[in-house]
Amino acid sequence: MFSGLFSDYRPPEGLFDEAFAAAREPRPHWQALIAQLRAGGRDALRAQAESLARAVQLDGVTYNVYADPKGADRPWSLDPLPFVIAPDEWQTIAAGVAQRAQLLDSLLADVYGPRHLLTEGLLPPALIFGHPGYLWPCQGIKPPGGRWLHLYAVDLARSADGRWWVIHDRTQGPSGAGYAMQNRVLVTRGLLPLFRSQRIEHLAEFFRVLRETLMSTVPTRGEAPMVVLMTPGPLNETYFEHSLLARHLGFPLAEGQDLTVRDDRVFLKTLQGLKPVHGILRRLDDDYCDPAELRADSALGVPGLLAAARAGNVLIANALGTGLLETTGLQGFLPPICERLLGERLQLPSVATWWCGEGPALEHVIDHLDELVIKPAFPSMRMALRFGHQLNTGERLKLISRLRATPHAFQAQEWIRLSTAPTLLPDGRIAPRAVGIRVFALATPEGYRVMPGGLARVAAEADDDVVTMQHGGASKDIWVPSKGRVSTETLIPPPIAAHDLVRSAAVVPSRIAENLFWLGRYSERCETQARLLRAAVTRLTESGEGGQLALDSLAGVCRFLGVLPTPEEGEEDEPLTDADWLAAVFDPESPSSLLSNARRLQRAGSQVRERLSGDNWHALNRLLATVDRRARGIQDAIESLDRCMMLCLSLAGFAMDDMTRDDSWRFLLLGRRIERLSGLSALIGRFLADPAPLRHAGLEWLLEATDSIVTYRARYRRRPELLPVLDLIVFDDDNPHALAFQLDVLTRYLGRLGRDYGTHFAHGPGELLDRLRRFDPTRFHNLGLLGSAPGGDPVEALEALSGEAAQLAYALSDELGLTFFSHAERALQTAEAA
To answer: Which class for 334: exposed (0-12), middle (13-18), buried (19 or more C-beta within 10 A)?
Structure first.
């Protein structure tokens, strides 16, 4: 009965509640979970929810909702209470899902092949040929292995009588399997003893079979098989899942621009050249995949991809043309088609569905509108669901008019009052919410295999009839207890034999190298900016002329570097306030704030998520969280900048100690060194441009900003002076924050890159390094505050040399981009050679 933690739990009358029977007693398969929740009480559940929210944040689990006020990286909403399904019931569901997947695969083979279902009248031609998802160029294609549907998902809902019904089929690039895996990892952390004691089915084997099936099915020419996961890019709402699956399956994550077709074969653009691609696990809708034959305005696809599929040179999972099935208008025709194609009755029925393109169906829909949900017939139509019982008289007449005007564009389904499940609300209460589940199946040589679990989704509000993440709903992990022994398999592949050992560099797509390069640049930029701002903010509490001069010197440098805004021409240079300095750290509207650069850093990291360790990714998210908030004052800002510095140092440590010295690492380090060369040379040049009194007052913060203060004190044990400070941060080859060090490292890195790829860099740092080494630091000796020395002012000479170093950094960045990322330089050389 409802008591304790569930004392306020009241399922709506007349609906099926997943956890509690009519007698208000927990259903048998929910009893263990409910007992543990009650034993822990509200405090334990609250702690578990908070821990789960932190884990979602740190793991960077996102679901991007377009035009959402939370931005492009909306945190994934996950309920800590899993959704439990009894083993016997699950077996029935799994058998029905497997049969339905086989049925739809056979249906696709027929409508793109002999079309018997059309000629025999089992499918109306208008519904197929009038469907925007029917791709005429795919007619006659025979996919490798004969499968059209390699990964299938179906949305199910339970009605008030306890029966499960199919709501929607997902057949193009079904989303959610990766989120289901992530949900399992996160939820079981707080319920691990219960998870083990209840012998919950594991999910890892499903993904292992998916990987092995694709790798063994792809057509090769004796080459090692390569499968890529094709994504629309970081702006897609499920990009996190794409990255997660690519990492766990071991497939390169590729956008359309990363692939090209030559002689009806698909290739991946890499730093090492073009590498043949034999399989594509796609998360891109059909019509966007090939602008040459399908949607001409698509910038996401690969021209010629359909020709490669037609030639049988690439396996595409799922095959192009499978979007045809993503209309509920087909569901009403499936029972007789199942008996025709499989010789079986349809085990898992669809909700009663009527396609309004048929006259009798249209009249039935209009006569029974109050009992139905009106939907667009084709997914490409942008129309919200209309519940007949919610319409007033005017809305009802308007909808009927639209139905009669374009009946083929609409379908209707019986309105199902969804079952409810216990859900944790933001205020800490457990309440019933409408729930639906998404179940996944994959094609194997032995038939379709169903994931023993899946993705449950719950409505946001008590009276919601729609369960979707786009409308603010939350997700749940699905638990299926086993009656027997549970597989303990993980995603770790079988042991590697001696003949499988690999020591060559991994394939690095050009886009990945570019994002790693910018990951290095932004991580270094955030570190430099945090050091500068910490040096400034700590001096806001100091008094005296020396402290003010140092702050004035810092302000000039920060404005020159863009850390602080520069007054518009004609405006007076107003004295800076504490608020101005805090805005340089925390202001989300300022494009130059530390927060804005941390967001750019996190965005660059999200595009190479599969290349980063979990610890590295957590550090990126912690860094953003540290500055993505409102500061409560100077001391709070200092503490935030201290934490920010620690995280920046962690990122540098990951780059130096956690990454194999391959091309990925080289471009990441090139980005860091070029950014440090750019920032350091601009910092030194602008510092030297100050009048002598400001330079003298700023020597200490200059050492802090270049992370050289400890080294200076250990060497000289006295107050900073111009000559030894410049020697340390400009000429010292052993100081990793010195100008000479950056030029020396870049000379070696670029030399190795040039030898490996046969590239000559027009803007090499070697010549500038030689000039810097010939510069005589003794010219600064006894240099007075007015700045005069024999042979010209060395301050001005070094300022000019610093300016050249900054320009060199910009030129190197551009040259690397043209040569390795856009390949423009190579294309130009090829054209000239021709």
So the answer is: buried
Domain locations in the chain as residue ranges: 1-92+102-327+430-489, 512-567+575-659, 661-834
By C-alpha distance, which of 815, 660, 678, 819 is closest to 742?
Answer: 678
E-state strands within 113-258: 151-158, 164-170, 227-230, 253-254
The H-or-E segment that residue 386 falls in is: strand 386-387
Q: What is the H or E stretch that residue 742 is in?
A: helix 739-757
Three-state DSSP at 423 gives strand
Q: Are strands 151-158 and 164-170 parallel, antiparallel or unpaired?
A: antiparallel
Per-residue pLDDT reduced to its tens digit, 410-448: 888 888 889 999 999 888 889 999 999 999 999 999 999
Give pLDDT tens digits for 609-637: 777 877 888 888 889 989 988 877 888 99
Helices and strands counted in the chain (H then E): 26, 19
Query: What confidence tier does 304 reach under pLDDT thresholds 50, 70, 90?
Result: very high
Q: How many CB atoms lie within 10 A of CB 67?
A: 4
In terms of Cβ atoms closer than 10 Å to its own Cβ (0-12, 13-18, 19+), residue 613 is exposed
Kindly report the length of the chain: 834
Which pLDDT belongs to residue 435? 94
DSSP 665: H
Map tokens 């592949």 to a residue.
493
For 335-373, write each residue's pLDDT tens digit: 999 999 999 999 998 888 888 888 898 999 898 898 888
> What contacts 24+ positions apart, CB below 8 Å, involve 549-556?
549/693, 549/694, 549/697, 549/698, 550/697, 550/698, 550/700, 550/701, 551/576, 552/694, 552/697, 553/687, 553/690, 553/694, 553/695, 553/697, 553/698, 553/701, 554/698, 554/701, 556/686, 556/690, 556/694
CB 473 within 8 A of CB 458: yes
User: DSSP letters of 135-167?
Assistant: -GGGTT---GGG-S-SEEEEEEEE-TTS-EEEE
Dihedral through CA 175, CA 181, CA 186, CA 190, nearest 10? Answer: 130
Work out whether strand 353-355 and strand 372-376 pair parallel, antiparallel, or are unpaired: unpaired
Q: Which pLDDT does position 58 carry in this prediction?
A: 73
pLDDT at residue 32, rounded to an integer: 92
Residue 105: alpha-carbon gap to chain centroid = 30
> Of the ranges 63-67, 233-237, 390-394, which is most confident?
390-394
Contacts 24+ apart (CB under 8 A), 234-239: 234/72, 234/603, 234/606, 234/607, 235/64, 235/72, 236/64, 236/283, 237/63, 237/64, 237/65, 237/66, 237/470, 238/63, 238/64, 238/175, 238/176, 238/178, 238/179, 238/283, 239/62, 239/64, 239/606
Which tens digits make up the pLDDT trace of 569-583? 656 667 788 889 999
One-letter amino acid at 631 equals A
Cα angle at 102 between 98 and 105, to 5 degrees? 140
Pairing of strands 83-84, 474-479: parallel
331/91: higher pLDDT: 91
- Measure the CA angle with vertex 831, ends 830 and 834; round to 5°: 85
Question: How many other β-carbons are positioned within 10 Å of the β-carbon of residue 569?
Answer: 5
DSSP E strands: which ranges in 613-718? Answer: none
User: Which residue's entry shows tokens 């998916």?
Assistant: 210
Q: Which of 214, 172, 202, 101 is nearest to 449 (CA)?
A: 101
Buried b or exposed e, range 483-493, using 16+ CB within 10 angstroms: eeeeeeeebee
CA distances from 496 to 208, 499, 672 (A): 15, 8, 35
What is the pTM (predicted TM-score) of this model?
0.76
Tokens of 400: 């009927």
Q: What are phi and psi of 437, to 5 degrees?
A: -125, 150
Residue 688: DSSP 8-state: H
Q: Are 293 and 137 in contact (CB under 8 A)?
A: yes
3-state secondary structure of 424: strand
| Of 441, 170, 462, 192, the residue nearest 323 (C-alpha) | 170
Q: Could you tell me the CA-to-CA distances from 620 to 523, 598, 651 in Å, in that order? A: 9, 8, 8
